[in-house]
Amino acid sequence: MVRLITYFLFLITVFISSNIIGQNQTKSPCSGEKYGQFDFWEGSWNVYNTQNKLIGTNKLIKMQNNCVMQENWESKISQSRGTSYNYYNKTDDSWNQVWVDNTGFSLVLKGNLVNGKMILKSDLIKTNKANYINKITWSKNDDGSVTQVWEYINEQGKVISEAFRGIYKKAI
Q1: Distance separating the N- and C-terminal Cα atoms of the chain
Q2: Are residues 101 and 165 in the same domain?
Q3: Would you give the DSSP letter of residue 21?
Q4: Which residues contact 126 (CB under 8 A, 6 or more apart)?
Q5: pLDDT at 26 over 70
Q6: Full domain range(s) for residue 109
Q7: What's the pLDDT score for residue 20?
Q8: Same domain for 63 and 19?
Q9: Which helix (H) or strand (E) holds 18?
Q10: What is the pLDDT of residues 118-146, one digit of tens each?
Q11: Residue 163 in 3-state DSSP?
């Protein structure tokens, strides 16, 4: 009888444990379509300019249960290095990026995936010379590469200038 009770308790323990483990594996807090919209940028990349010259490397890794993608940029033409954290905010249904580099420059962007392109913008920056918005667009290309374009936009929505254009090709 004791043996039967012990066996029964063992079965209950296994059943409860497997349910708890199964629930933890299937209930990722940052799963679902919205959380995967920027996954096309994940990976290790060599970054080229429009003349196909290597200008930097970038490594993007998912972390914190896939809730955050960390960017690690390193320029090959200057001493520039920087890190960003990219995440989907379900509260306001937006993608966000916080960037800081080794010069102390920081940038905060917010936006969404629009027609297959991730488009993030800063708030209006006011200076003595001009007021502008930073707009950065990431586009997945047919060959698997990603193009990133950083533009300065005036208050009327017109492009003032282009700060950066890079083509990301998977590092081998």
Answers
A1: 63
A2: yes
A3: H
A4: none
A5: no
A6: 34-170
A7: 47
A8: no
A9: helix 2-26
A10: 999 999 999 999 899 999 999 999 999 99
A11: strand
Q: Which residue has the tokens 């199964």?
A: 22
Q: Which amino acid would we find at residue 103? A: T
The angle at the Cα of 103, spanning 99 to 107, to the nearest 5 degrees, equals 25
Rounded CA-CA distance 60/72 in Å is 6
Q: What's the residue count for the chain?
A: 172
Residue 164 CA to residue 42 CA, distance in Å, equals 19
**How far apart are the C-alpha atoms of 96 and 113, rounded to whole Å?**
11
Q: What is the CATH number of the domain that holds 157?
A: 2.40.128.20
Q: Which residue has the tokens 């029964």?
A: 8
Closest CA to 164 of 69, 41, 47: 47
- Average pLDDT score, the chain: 89
Q: Select from 135, 64, 59 the least CA-distant residue to 97.
A: 135
The two tokens of residue 143 are: 């060959």
Distance CA 117, CA 140 (A): 7
Strand intervals (E) in 80-145: 81-89, 94-101, 106-114, 117-121, 125-126, 131-140
φ and ψ at residue 127, rounded to 5 degrees = -130, 175
Structure tokens at 109: 């962007």
Domain count for the chain: 2
